[in-house]
Specification:
Blueprint (H helix, E strand, L loop, with lengths): L6 E3 L2 E2 L4 E2 L1 H13 L4 H8 L4 H17 L2 H18 L1 E4 L2 E4 H4 L7 E7 L10 E3 L2 E3 L1 H13 L5 H12 L10 E5 L8 H4 L5 E5 L4 H12 L4 E7 L13 H8 L6 E5 L6 H20 L4 E6 L4 E5 H12 L3 H13 L10 E3 L4 E5 L6 H20 L4 E5 L6 H4 L2 H8 L11 H17 L16 H4 L14 H21 L1
Parallel strand pairs: 9-10, 9-12, 10-11, 12-13, 13-17
Antiparallel strand pairs: 1-4, 2-3, 4-5, 6-11, 7-8, 14-16, 15-16
Helix pairs in contact: 1-2, 1-3, 1-4, 3-4, 4-14, 6-7, 7-17, 10-11, 11-14, 16-19
């Protein structure tokens, strides 16, 4: 095996001698539900058009997770165990199971410290449309987002709590690990202002680390970064140096708050999600007081309170005759691919299932998000503090490089949806992490009783309005993109 292949990799299928991300996804997801519903697991394995039909099976997995709380945890544990055993790890031409590789570091990472030069006190504001919202302006905007149903009441209340407790922002007592420290919507820039002890992990890339260093030096925090002694270049690769990162993190004596922030395109996103999961699992096994943090996407499948369905159906009934007629015609003419009304699947008197998956994001993205949700559920079940909140659709470079998504974001306002700028999302989601760590009654705290474990996933959501539209997310995108293109052309002409 060539040494070009390194680190975490999808396994090679014996019959074809090639890697198949589809085969791996079907294997991991079907294994997760095998003990709960063998028939559904078999149906999943036999799916012949995974790229088109994976949402059906993701939804079925969630339905089975809703069955009872025991099944929720069983599915999550089984899925994670299968993933760790299924993937391979390559080093120096040799392959081993990823599960075994984690405990076999080859090199030793050293630690470099960067200390902020500022003496400023921690503060929080929200950058929004060219302004820095503070005080009453900040509270007014939170209220406006809530009234427009851009954010859920639980999300709004969490932000108000942070505003009411500025003392929470002094994070000098926390040691916060950023897996993917340079992530565009990560909290680094805010932790750097809040006196945090930051452990930053990202690839060795000079421009990236120059920006990280500048961010820290302008703030009041302290940062610790890994490096290999033989080259002195800051950074560590989550995909190829996973065992080394685990060993290095376990040398810290403090309780760690670990955030999974790294994002990569396509199948690499699954691999980096697995790397972050293994790091979280290994560090948590050594220190039970480790807390975890994830940011979810609104374009996924969720178990929501039944009130969501009732409100959407009421909205649909209140549409004008013209709107109903036009959208019904468009939906039928497009074979339900454009402006098909939002459909919720009732599972019980308390829950309905919302399907917000977007096919353009692909099955690899959906699998990566399953790994993160499964880890969140298992960790909280085991007594850990887990912060996992839905973050809004954001105009990051990784998103807007997709022409369809960029145009759809530009036209999202047509449906009452707001796409957030990265700096706004950064401020909001950093505050949510602080809330989940500091507030004793937050759903992140394992001693707080939930009606169902899946409430952890849906609570505190900032979905940008996507969950409250009259139409399914993937059938809104084409029309939003058309409107977005129209706006761009109109702007160019004027």
């Amino acid at each position: 095996m060539s040494d070009i292949i390194k680190g975490i990799q999808f396994p090679i299928v014996a019959s074809t001698k090639k890697i198949s991300t589809t085969a791996s996804a079907k294997y991991i997801l079907s294994s997760a539900i095998q003990s709960i519903d063998p028939h559904c697991a078999e149906t999943m394995r036999n799916e012949t058009n995974w790229r088109k039909n994976y949402p059906i099976h993701i939804k079925k997995t969630l339905e089975l997770s809703l069955k009872n709380t025991k099944d929720t945890i069983t599915i999550a544990q089984s899925g994670l165990k299968t993933a760790h055993e299924h993937f391979r790890f390559y080093r120096h031409g040799l392959s081993t199971s990823f599960k075994n590789a984690i405990s076999q570091p080859f090199e030793k990472l050293q630690t470099h410290q960067i200390i902020g030069k500022s003496n400023s006190l921690p503060e929080w504001y929200i950058p929004y449309k060219g302004k820095q919202l503070r005080g009453q302006s900040l509270l007014n905007q939170i209220q406006l987002w809530q009234e427009k149903k851009i954010i859920e009441p639980s999300h709004a209340e969490a932000l108000r709590k942070v505003y009411e407790h500025p003392e929470w922002l002094d994070l000098s007592d926390r040691t916060m690990v950023l897996l993917g420290a340079g992530a565009e919507i990560g909290p680094l820039s805010w932790l750097a202002k809040w006196k945090a002890n930051i452990i930053a992990i990202d690839i060795a890339h000079l421009p990236k680390w120059t920006l990280i260093r500048q961010t820290i030096e302008k703030g009041n925090a302290t940062l610790y970064a890994p490096f290999l002694e033989n080259n002195k270049e800051l950074g560590a690769d989550l995909l190829t140096q996973t065992p080394e990162i685990v060993k290095w993190l376990n040398q810290f004596n403090q309780n760690l708050d670990i955030a999974a922030l790294a994002y990569l395109d396509g199948e690499k996103h699954v691999r980096v999600a697995l790397a972050m999961d293994a790091i979280m699992q290994s560090v948590s096994e050594k220190n039970k007081n480790t807390s975890l943090m994830f940011m979810s996407t609104p374009t996924d499948i969720y178990a929501l309170p039944i009130s969501f369905k009732k409100e959407i159906e009421q909205q649909q009934r209140q549409r004008s005759f013209l709107e109903k007629s036009m959208t019904q015609l468009i939906s039928q003419f497009s074979c339900k691919k454009i402006l098909h009304k939002a459909i919720f699947t009732d599972y019980s008197e308390k829950y309905t299932i919302y399907d917000g998956l977007v096919l353009q994001q692909g099955p690899n993205y959906a699998l990566a998000k399953r790994l993160q949700q499964w880890r969140a559920l298992v960790a909280r079940h085991q007594g850990q503090c887990v912060s996992i909140n839905v973050s809004p659709s954001t105009t990051t470079q990784s998103v807007i490089k997709n022409p369809l998504l960029q145009s759809a974001f530009n036209g999202a306002s047509l449906f009452g949806v707001e796409a957030f700028a990265p700096e706004t999302t950064n401020a909001i989601m950093a505050a949510m992490w602080v809330h989940d760590l500091r507030y004793p009654k937050a759903v992140s705290q394992p001693n707080i009783t939930l009606t169902h474990p899946l409430d952890l996933i849906s609570s505190g959501a900032n979905h940008g309005g996507l969950w409250r539209t009259n139409y399914t997310t993937r059938t809104v995108l084409p029309m939003a993109a058309l409107y977005g293109n129209f706006k761009n052309k109109k702007r160019a002409i004027s």
